[in-house]
Amino acid sequence: MSLFNELKRRNVFRVGVAYVIISWLLAQVADLMLENFGAPDWVIKTFLGFLIIGFPLALFFAWAFELTPDGVKRESEVDRSQSITPQTGQKLNRSIILVMTIALAWFAWDRFGATPTPEVTLPAPETLAVTAETETEQVAVDKSVAVLPFVAMSSGPDDEYFADGLTEEILNSLAQLPELLITARTSSFHFKGQDIPVQEIAAALGVKHIVEGSVRRSGDRLRVTAQLVRAQDGFHLWSENYDSTSEDTIQVQEDIAVKIAVAMDVVMDETKRDAMKKAGLRNVEAFVNFQKASELFGEAHSDVDQIEYLRRANLLLESVMELVPTYVPAYTQHSDLYVHILLNSVAGDVMENVSAQDIADAQNNAIADMTIAAEHARNFTERNNIELDLAYMSGNWHSLQGSVERHLSATGCNDTQWAAGVIALYGLSERFATRSTEIRKCDPMWSHSWFDESRAYLWAGDKEEALRVAREGNKVAPGGWLGYALVRALIANGLFEEADYAITTYMRLRKDILGLKLMKSTAMGDKGTSDKLFAELYKDTQTTGFFKPIIYAWMGDRDNANRMAAEIDNHNFGSQALMLNIYWCACGAPWDLEVTPNFAANIETAGMSWPPASPINFPLKDW
Question: Looking at residue 500, what DSSP letter applies?
Answer without folding.
Answer: H
